């Protein structure tokens, strides 16, 4: 379906890409490593934001061996501000696997790439095609939108079978040469011309004469996307405060979510390290050391907590709102909501490494 139409977009799109695409550092020198780093950074993040991070990252860690060996703090620092830190941690796990199984070189195989931590079908398709010239599609949200509009498809792109069908349609039209350029041209069109949220710039589009969405005057209404009932998202900063071997906990209010339960102290919003130190000082505690922790998510019925956290070593001080509990009490006597499980683990890890408990 629509194959003849879609076949006709290949050449005009490639010509447009060669004359109009943005100059981006990973396109200049598309080694597998650089393509991989850029694709992971670009997930949920805009190109403008990624540019300085990319340059810094590949300057500090120029190859897979250096990424595999990097100290976690250095990795987090290089990623600081990009968010979704699991992305960079997965990259390091993948780098270690690549060192072990592939002699430090990313495998030129879609299937093998997809086996690596943090690399899904989209990223595997992008790396396979851009870095290795393999004929695999790289269908992200931009591409789903562009194809839906060109074919005037009113199918819901959040449906898995619809996504699969579009992947199949793109696979069928992939050129034998310049497959990576073609995948990038589709993404580039979506990112710079066929813009989301009802704002396609059809007047300057190289595919205007072929696009059914434009011809039928419905481009701005496409693609169809079911909006799932949204949960209210709340950002939280969780404090894992340790004094000696004791953990600081507080009691929640008697009403509302998790009423009356013990919890790890937490503050609304995503606090920087400096802001966090100020909050803790305001509690009357002095901070000896602070270290950022992994992000975590917890989903309640109507609310989702997007949590970040810090491990803080603090000096004992009087503070009526904080209760200091021993590991034994915590294990045996206190019930903390599952929402904090990810951070309680950091407390135990701290005890293991500092007191051998
Ligand atoms: S003509 Fe408009 S809707 Fe069609 S591909 Fe171009 S920008 Fe998108």
TrEMBL record:
UniProt keyword terms in alphabetical order: 4Fe-4S, DNA damage, DNA repair, Glycosidase, Hydrolase, Iron, Iron-sulfur, Metal-binding
Keyword Metal-binding: yes
Cofactor requirements of the protein: [4Fe-4S] cluster
Transmembrane regions: none
Residue ranges the record marks as coiled coil: none
BP GO terms, sorted: base-excision repair; mismatch repair
Chain ranges of the HhH-GPD domain: 41-192
InterPro entries on file: A/G_AdeGlyc_MutY, DNA_glycosylase, Endonuclease-III-like_CS2, HhH-GPD_domain, HhH_base_excis_C, HhH_motif, MIG/MutY, MutY_C
Enzyme Commission number(s): 3.2.2.31
Group of enzyme by EC: hydrolase
Catalytic function, reaction form: Hydrolyzes free adenine bases from 7,8-dihydro-8-oxoguanine:adenine mismatched double-stranded DNA, leaving an apurinic site
Similarity comment: family membership: Belongs to the Nth/MutY family.
Name of the featured protein: Adenine DNA glycosylase
Species of the source: Acetanaerobacterium elongatum
């Amino acid at each position: 379906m629509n194959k003849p139409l879609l076949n006709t977009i290949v050449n005009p799109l490639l010509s447009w890409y060669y004359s109009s695409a943005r100059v981006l550092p990973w396109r200049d020198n598309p080694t597998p490593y650089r393509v991989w780093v850029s694709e992971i950074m670009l997930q949920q993040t805009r190109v403008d934001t990624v540019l300085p991070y990319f340059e810094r990252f590949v300057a500090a860690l120029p190859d897979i061996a250096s990424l595999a060996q990097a100290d976690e703090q250095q990795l987090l620092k290089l990623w600081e501000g990009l968010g979704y830190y699991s992305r960079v941690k997965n990259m390091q796990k993948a780098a270690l696997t690549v060192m072990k199984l592939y002699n430090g070189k990313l495998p030129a195989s879609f299937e093998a790439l997809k086996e690596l931590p943090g690399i899904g079908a989209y990223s595997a398709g992008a790396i396979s095609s851009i870095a290795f010239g393999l004929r695999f599609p790289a269908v992200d949200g931009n591409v789903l939108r562009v194809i839906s509009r060109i074919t005037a498809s009113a199918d819901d792109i959040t449906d898995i079978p619809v996504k699969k069908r579009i992947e199949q349609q793109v696979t069928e039209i992939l050129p034998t040469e310049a497959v990576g350029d073609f995948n990038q041209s589709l993404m580039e069109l979506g990112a710079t011309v066929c813009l989301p949220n009802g704002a396609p710039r059809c007047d300057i589009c190289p595919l205007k004469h072929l696009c059914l969405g434009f011809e039928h005057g419905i481009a701005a209404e496409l693609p169809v996307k079911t909006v799932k009932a949204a949960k209210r998202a709340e950002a939280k900063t969780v404090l894992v405060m340790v004094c000696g071997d004791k953990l600081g906990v507080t009691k929640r209010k008697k009403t509302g979510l998790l009423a009356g339960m013990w919890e790890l102290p937490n503050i609304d919003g995503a606090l920087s390290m400096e802001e966090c130190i100020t909050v803790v000082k305001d509690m009357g505690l002095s901070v000896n050391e602070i270290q950022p922790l992994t992000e975590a998510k917890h989903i309640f019925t109507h609310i989702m907590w997007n949590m970040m956290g810090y491990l803080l070593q603090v000096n004992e001080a009087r503070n009526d709102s904080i209760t200091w509990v021993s590991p034994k009490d915590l294990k045996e006597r206190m019930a903390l909501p599952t929402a904090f499980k990810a951070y309680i683990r950091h407390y135990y890890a701290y005890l293991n490494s500092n007191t051998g408990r």
